Amino acid sequence: MLNSIELFCGVGGLALGLQRAGFDHKALYEWNRCSCDNIKLNIVKGFAPVRHWKVYNMDVRDIDYGAFADKIQLVSGGPPCQPFSMGGKARAYKDSRDMFPEAVRAVRELRPEAFVFENVKGLLRKSFSTYFNYILLQLSYPDLVRRPGMDWEEHLRQLECYHTSNSVFGLKYKVVFRLLNVADYGVPQSRHRVVLVGFRDDVDAGWAFPAPTHSREKLLYEKWVTGSYWKKRNLASPDCSLSKRQLDALACLQPKRAPWRTVRDAIGDLPDPRSAEAGQYANHEFRSGAKRYAGHSGSLLDEPSKTIKAGVHGVPGGENMVVLDDGSLRYYTVRESARIQTFDDHYVFGGAWSENMRQIGNAVPVKLAGIIGKSVAAHLEGVRRCGKGNEIGADRAI
Fold this sequence. Notes:
Layout: E1 2-7, H1 13-20, E2 23-30, H2 33-44, E3 55-57, E4 74-77, H3 100-110, E5 114-120, H4 129-140, H5 152-163, E6 173-181, E7 192-200, E8 214-215, H6 216-224, H7 228-232, H8 244-253, E9 258-259, H9 263-267, E10 299-300, E11 321-323, E12 329-331, H10 334-340, H11 353-362, H12 366-386
Parallel strand pairs: 1-2, 1-4, 2-3, 4-5, 8-9, 10-11
Antiparallel strand pairs: 5-7, 6-7, 11-12
Helix pairs in contact: 1-12, 4-5, 6-8
């Protein structure tokens, strides 16, 4: 078993996927009390994947990693996204919630064989490019610590000089990142996220991001070329919105991947939340008040869901609503949102609707976390079998 520690664990989406992939979480840290309470609720209820989790409700800046020295193979987490979110104020390093420095500290003090961090697409926006490069260089050379009184731009210049010199030594990581759409990995949602993965320099992992398994082209192909999408679901085929030229091009493609999964695929077997049968499912209660207006429309049943969002000033209803077959609109239930984020039906949410939706919206889809985690774990285990890894020397000062 590969030992791991997770920071900023939220309600546990990333942690659940990584555990499914073979990582054993020795500690999970989260500042938000409601998220910690929710994980603990599932521990009490006996949800098997979390029953041995040790969850600490604390500020990551107060963590002492001494007890875990040389015992952790993976550090993971989703540093708060608000400093970089398109929907927030996007103040980056000026935002007190920027916790990437703490992610770097965890890597420096724990010296894991690998790390996995996730964040929003906004991290890659042009205005953040210099700061994003700063994050990458800090993760690559975590021992090169910013001195008291040094601003981040001066530290960046120091890191750049170090990176381009011939005298690099100490703790080093080979870092890669990619902007992923979770729909390409079988999650029934269009959700773009930046994932950063690093391997310690002595770990000859030979790793690359897992290849996508699903595609939009295949979904379109099954809808408008073969019609199999509608036939499999006993639905009448609607009028096609594609031109003949588009259809001809699509027919020539014959895409090999699986089709994107849709909202209907995710929640189609759930009863109407207004029915008596809805009580058979936890967190599947109807919520009234959904309204449609310009720029505020719900997700279509036969497309991947819009991104489930936490929201800066509450939950944005447009992303958390669904358009039904009769054209009516309603809010997703908590259970439906959890399914779209690929949580197990036995994982329950104990708070109010808005708080539950916030937690789900902040989570990493469990399925995506599992795919990335399985790939990272396989490479770490492969290194062990081949004996390619070497311990970093005791003298790591820079």
